[in-house]
């Protein structure tokens, strides 16, 4: 009983399929804020933290922890979503 050897083409196809199904973390930053430690310690359910962005502002989209895209938040299919508006340049990420 021998081990089957794969051709380079079969190996490339196998790797390509694995890459297509690999999951990569994507996160979206809605904005930033600074609060005092006292305010942080006193936060309660229902409190509001003001962000440095407006409602219609672009949000930053990070792929594997690196800024790669910008987008606009919205709803798609009843779920929260981000519509990509532009690609971040190398200096931004």
UniProtKB/TrEMBL annotation:
SUPFAM superfamilies: Surface presentation of antigens (SPOA). Keywords: Cell projection, Cilium, Flagellum. It holds the Pfam family FliMN_C. Residues 18-88 form the Flagellar motor switch protein FliN-like C-terminal domain. InterPro entries: FliN-like_C, SpoA-like_sf. It comes from the Bacteria. This is Flagellar motor switch protein FliM. The lineage of its organism: Bacteria, Pseudomonadati, Candidatus Kryptoniota, Candidatus Kryptonium.
